[in-house]
Amino acid sequence: MKPVSLLTILLTALITTFSCKDGITTIEEPQPGRRDYVWKRDTLRADMEGWQHLHGIWGDSPKDIWVIGDAYTYVNKVWHYDGVNWKNYLLNEYAEPTKIWGVSSSEIWMLTKQSEIWKYNGTKWYKHTTIVPPGYSHILFQDIFGYTNSIYAVGVAVKSDGDYTGIIVHYNGVKWEIVKTPLIKEYFFNVIFVNGGDVLISGQDFHEPNQSCRLYVLKNGTLNLIGKNRFTYFLGVLNKKCYISVDAKVYEYVNGVLVEHLTLPKSIYAGGIIGRSLKDFFCANSGWYLGHYNGTSLDNLYFVNASIANGFVFEKEVFFILNNQGSTILHGKLN
């Protein structure tokens, strides 16, 4: 079973299964998600000095998880889980990591705040690419998502005078290149897509406070605005389909159209969509709870007493990054 992950909570897909009877192939409907997890919390600290904000998580299996972020001391920035223990990894150069994504255990990519893209080749991390558009000082990368030979990263390119524009870069299996788009004075925060399909990007325009949140689609090399809202657009891939959550409503992106599927209770739902299907996904709930929707109800699953920075979901195990004066990992298992 390949993993599932989120965004800004980010996530990927549970593989649809098929059954054959009398020569007829049918698609099995996703089953309501279970809630009987056994929970454990791990503190990721090699040095107690200063601040720590972990944000990125990706794993090839529940026994091969990477968690990254920025911290006051370099020993607290990059962590690996082998199924038993968490261990910190020391990079050979200074970096300020932001997000991480992989396509296999030997091809994992890590973004930074200073234009750098690092790669893990199965043995070690190394600085792979530094990419900056002409006239700009650096890129502050915010998110990354993709598949073999097609990975997108988004963020904001900043000039020395403080001017900026949203930026998209693409990896084609050989090299990283900047995607040519109009200059848009916005921050790009999240990116998702189904392999070979349109690319969805969320952003924010800080000069329009009443409708600052943005949703874009990159299709055939052209970037188009398809949504504006005063609430954040949360993006996620569930069951090989792209979903968007905004203002407590969940939509599926289908051929350029947002098709509404769910309305979640605003009194509980705080944001995010991380999971396996529309009948089995996690989110942040009000009151510092991890929430879960099982196709029927949205309930408080676990009191985290922290902000949920990100998560990653496998068939029977889930991992969430929690930030509250340092970072911990909430690890849930189904029997």
Quick rundown:
This protein has 335 residues and is mainly β.
Structure in words:
The protein is an all-beta fold. The chain has a single domain, classed as Methylamine Dehydrogenase, Chain H (7 Propeller), CATH 2.130.10. 0% of the residues lie in helices and 58% in strands. The chain is built from no helices and 31 strands. The chain has strands spanning 4-5, 18-21, 24-27, 38-43, 52-61, 64-71, 78-81, 86-88, 97-104, 107-112, 116-120, 125-130, 138-147, 150-158, 164-171, 176-178, 187-193, 199-204, 213-219, 222-229, 234-238, 241-246, 249-254, 257-263, 269-277, 280-285, 289-293, 298-303, 307-313, 317-323, 327-333. Strands 1-29-30-31-4 form a five-stranded antiparallel β-sheet, with no helix packed on it. β5 and β6 (64-71) form a beta hairpin. It starts with a strand and ends with a strand. 41% of the residues are buried.
Question: Top keywords for this entry?
Answer:
single chain, 335 residues, mainly beta, Methylamine Dehydrogenase, Chain H, five-stranded antiparallel sheet, four-stranded antiparallel sheet, 31 strands, globular, disordered N terminus
Number of strands: 31
Show unreliable segments: 1-26
Q: What is the straight-line distance between the termini?
A: 16 Å
Return the structural class.
Answer: mainly beta
Side by side, the strands of the main sheet go: 1-29-30-31-4
Helix content: under 10%
> Which fold name corresponds to the CATH topology?
Methylamine Dehydrogenase, Chain H
Q: How many alpha or pi helices?
A: 0
Q: What is the CATH architecture term?
A: 7 Propeller
The oligomeric state is single chain
The named CATH superfamily: YVTN repeat-like/Quinoprotein amine dehydrogenase
Q: Please give the radius of gyration in angstroms.
A: 19 Å
The major beta sheet can be summarized as: 5 strands, antiparallel
Q: According to CATH, what is the class?
A: Mainly Beta
Number of domains: 1
Beta strand %: over 45%
Mean pLDDT: 92
